[in-house]
Amino acid sequence: MDAVLEVDNIEVVYNKTVQVLRGLSLSVPHGAIVALLGSNGAGKSTTLKSVSGLLSLEDGELTAGDIRFNGESLKNRPPEKMVRDGLFHVMEGRRVFEDLTVEENLVAATYALTGRGQSRTQGYELVYDYFPRLRERRRQLAGYLSGGEQQMLALGRALIARPELIMLDEPSLGLAPLLVEEIFEIVARINREQGTAILLVEQNAAVSLALASYGYIMENGKIVIDGPADKLTSNEDVREFYLGVGAKGEEARSYRDIKHYKRRKRWLS
Amino acid sequence: MDWLFFGEISLAGLAMGGLYALIALGFVIIYKATRVINFAIGEIMMFAAYLFLAFAGGMEMSPWVAVPLAVLGGALLGGVIEKTMIRPMLGESPISVVMVTIGIASILVGLVEMIWTSNPQLLPSFLPREPVFIGPMYLAPKIAYGFLIGMSVLVLYLLYFRFSRGGVALRATASDQAAAYSMGINVRRVFNLAWVFGSLAASVAGILVAATGGLSPQFGIIGLSVLVVVIVGGLDSILGALIAGVFIGWLETVAGAYLGGEYRMPATFAVLAVILVLKPYGLFGTHEIERV
């Protein structure tokens, strides 16, 4: 069994009425970076929440399929237990505790180490090594950090937990391009140096596919296409719909052409 | 105007306010962590006071044993209530949960009447009796020592929440529940502990208040004054509970002394009305930002 996470044909229903995921499967190998791409409302965040068990807080329910972490089913495992087992979910929008200081945010993350018998304190130095700016601001309230610093703090909390797999939900959200690059470099470093597998959910397909070794693209609650990252980048449909490169060549489409183009791509594979 | 009298009344009022602050703290902890408005807080403190009566009066234990036992009993009661009656209501509308706490309050009153009858009772005295003078002003010893004990408990709580790891977990849960789960914090356990610690603070205050003013099944009415305190201070602000508690206690006593006992409640509720108009979230409460 070489996959750290296997999602097997899951279906998710919100409020007992709205079906969001319709038979989604994916797998993340040990120590790999895997990208999960898709447009707004495709169900990317829902996929992560169904893995980390936060779905129940939003009245969502896993109605079919199975999720395995290191070969063990995660069904009915309480969310805090999963974190303690090594599966860390960095939620969309960073979700730092705004009225806690930077340091207290990190302290909160040490609860992930409960029952593992690992030292709590050495994680802080690791975080401050990766993010020197957090060291400078460690006594400040997290709510006063800039967006980029908050994203760093969110990643720092994940580092504290020393997980086997980090699920990153849109780390580029609301950040300037330069910062996005910085954040992604650090994500790559964490993956390389800590051996942490990363499941990266993004709308920014170009950056994520450059980073990931394998990619999944989802639409309407299903995976529509998947493959090694370099194959996806050269796939014509992906180039046209997600990387914004014209299918016929490299020439930019004029707005007139785009206006014509109303049909949504149907994936009939 | 007799300044000495005013000073003595004010002092007694401030001391009473300190106990209000402690009860309010119990209320605020529970609200902050779980977003449950606990109308049973007055009855939980009444129950703890009756436990003290049973331990110290009925079984003739020394107060050194009886007080901790009664306080623990009150804390345990809070924990049991959360586990058996509040947790199943998780995810239900806040109004339903409030109704449950009101129901619990009635049950506790009934229970106390069944066990200890509805007659008012006096607690065996356990605080020193030498009169306390601050400058020329006299302060009843029960009130003075009650204030001291109450304030020490309050300071301990504040320090714990500010500096301990458990305090971080509580504040993290209060700030963002889903994110707290994603840190590996056992949020359900935090809820339970919030009830235990909140009830513990209320129980300490309950015994101290009952020691000064006697005890009856209607004792829980004090919860109403405390409700004013927490609304004035801001439902989720510990500092607000502290300041508003002292202020409301002072106001109630001074209004009672100068205008007559029947003006105690109207005075505080008038302040409440003014505060609600000027600052709907209380003096120190956070403004709710709803994001859907």
TrEMBL record, chain A:
Signal sequence, start to end: none
Keyword flag Transmembrane: no
Q: Which SUPFAM superfamilies match?
A: P-loop containing nucleoside triphosphate hydrolases
InterPro entries in the record, alphabetically? Answer: AAA+_ATPase, ABC_transporter-like_ATP-bd, ABC_transporter-like_CS, BCAA_Transport_ATP-bd_LivF, P-loop_NTPase
What Gene Ontology molecular function terms does this protein carry?
ATP binding
Look up keyword Cytoplasm and say if it applies.
no
Domain named ABC transporter: which ranges? 5-245
Keyword annotations of the record: Amino-acid transport, ATP-binding, Nucleotide-binding, Transport
Quote the Gene3D superfamilies the UniProt record gives.
Answer: P-loop containing nucleotide triphosphate hydrolases (3.40.50.300)
Q: Which domain of life is it from?
A: Bacteria
Q: Which family does it belong to?
A: Belongs to the ABC transporter superfamily.
Protein name in UniProt = ABC transporter ATP-binding protein
Task: Give the species.
Answer: Marinobacter zhanjiangensis
TrEMBL record, chain B:
**Out of the domains of life, which is the source?**
Bacteria
KW Transmembrane (keyword) present: yes
Q: Which UniProt keywords apply?
A: Amino-acid transport, Cell membrane, Membrane, Transmembrane, Transmembrane helix, Transport
Provide the primary localization: membrane
Q: Does the keyword Nucleotide-binding apply?
A: no
Segments traversing the membrane:
12-31, 36-55, 61-81, 93-116, 143-161, 193-215, 221-251, 263-284
Q: Which CDD domains match?
A: TM_PBP1_LivH_like
Annotated compartments: Cell inner membrane
Could you tell me the membrane topology recorded for this protein? Multi-pass membrane protein
* Family assignment from sequence similarity: Belongs to the binding-protein-dependent transport system permease family. LivHM subfamily.
Q: What is this protein called?
A: Branched-chain amino acid ABC transporter permease
